[in-house]
Amino acid sequence: MTTPSTPTTPSTPVPQTSSHPPAAAYRNLVVATIGFALTFWAWNLIAPLAGVFGSDLKLSSFAQSFLVAVPVLVGSLGRIPVGALTDRYGARLLFPLISALTIIPVLLVIPARHNFGAMLAVGFLLGLGGTTFAIGIPLVNSWFPPAHRGLALGIFGMGMGGVALSGYLTPRMAKHGENLPFLVVAIALAVYAVVAAVLITDHPDRKIPTTSLGKRLGAAGKLRVTWELSALYAIGFGGIVAFGVYLPTYLKTWYELSPTEAGTKAAGFALVTVIFRPVGGWLSDRIHPATVTACALAVVALFAILQAFDPTLNPMGTICFLLMAAGLGTASGSVFALVSQVTPQPQVGSVTGIVGAMGGLGGFVPPLVMGAIYSAKDSYSIGFMLLSDLALAGCVYAYGRMRNARAE
Predict the structure, then answer these.
(1) How far apart are CA 77 and CA 130, in angstroms?
(2) How many Å apart are CA 200 and CA 190, to the nearest integer?
(3) At a CB cut-off of 8 Å and minimum separation 6, what does 399 contact?
(4) Per-residue model confidence as pLDDT tens digits over 362-385
(5) Would you list the DSSP string of 79-130?
């Protein structure tokens, strides 16, 4: 005698093998993306006001750069343990927890802003806000079936626009009160932590690892694909970070733009990368993500070569930068679509943490190289040629090797 099957109700999670994501998948995607954007705004609170802090504290150029770099470096490295913790405890716990904890350093900026040592300590703690990337990727990955996963991960990745949001809103808020941006972000994070605690849910079929954090990170580190994906993401997302940090300086130095003009064009570059990240995921749902990554990096390589010949900014230089932004944004989206294909599901969080960390860290080498080359040669051409070489190497590796990679 057979037992009649239970009809699926709207509240019943659809298994991951279903061709259509359940409503809960979209709810988690929206809430996670908003949280990603808010915590990234908090993560980037110091950079837009670095000039103000530098003037108030009488910092050298290096000290000012170091102050900006501390939260970024800590946030990048922090993704490694946070990703592994997400595998174990789930996003339902970690997303509201990290959001709530980030409120502490955001408010501490107010009393610390008049002391350099205190600001470095607060910047270290602000790095916590940069770790939520490693929480959201495994959450979204678990809720969406393979046919929809690339676009979903790309949409979540648009939360990195929180950095651009901070760059635009933080200094404007500060004009109305030096402490206003920190109070606004703290309140927003508090509200979000409550919302996330209510609305974020882990997939019911999520596999919970039983091994220790160290063993899981060690296992993820032993996977060849972890480091292959890290290298590709360091080119794609690392390129976005590098341009975000150095593009205003380049435009002011080489094209003699005003700080406002340079900042506006840099914001346009960032906006294009945000828009094209889900495009990379969407294409990866239809074409192999390794092929999408290869094509996107080929575009970056081509227009980096053209920019190396120092064209006039209008229109050729602008075209080169916008198309490089499109290529880097697309590659960032497609690499994480590739993560979902070649990484065992229980290890997605651990691998995401390592890959995300390498992407963030990859963004801080190019500005140093560009600055050193300009100091030595009074030209940026060599730097753009190096970018083209790196992008071309990633293009060849993605197409030649990663199209055949499988989950180990």
Answers:
(1) 9
(2) 15
(3) 290, 291, 294
(4) 876 776 677 778 778 888 889 899
(5) HHHHHHHHHHH-HHHHHHHHHHHHHHHHHHHHHHTT-HHHHHHHHHHHGGGG
Quote the CA–CA distance of 389 and 383 in Å, as a whole number.
Answer: 10
- Least confident interval from 250-254, 262-266, 272-276: 262-266
**pTM of this prediction?**
0.76
In angstroms, rounded to a whole number, what is the distance separating the alpha carbons of residues 10 and 14? 9
In terms of Cβ atoms closer than 10 Å to its own Cβ (0-12, 13-18, 19+), residue 204 is: exposed
Question: Cis before residue 22, ω within 30 degrees of 0?
Answer: no
Residues 6+ apart with CB under 8 A from 349: 83, 84, 85, 86, 87, 134, 135, 137, 138
Each residue of 304-317: pLDDT tens digit? Answer: 999 999 999 989 99
Burial of 32 (0-12, 13-18, 19+ CB in 10 A): buried
Residues 306-335 as b or e (16 or more Cβ within 10 Å = b): bbbeeeebeeebeebbbbbbbbbbbbbbbb
Enter the tokens of residue 303: 């227009």
CB 87 within 8 A of CB 347: yes
Q: What is the pLDDT of residues 334-343, one digit of tens each?
A: 998 888 788 8
Contact 32, 200 (CB under 8 A): yes
Residue 10 corresponds to which tokens in the numbers above? 């709207």
C-alpha dihedral (314, 388, 359, 220), degrees to nearest 10: 160
CA angle 163, 41, 27 (to 5 degrees): 100
Q: Which of 180, 149, 168 is nearest to 345 (CA)?
A: 149
Q: How far apart are CA 6 and CA 24, in angstroms?
A: 19
Distance CA 232, CA 220 (A): 17
Structure tokens at 385: 């040629």
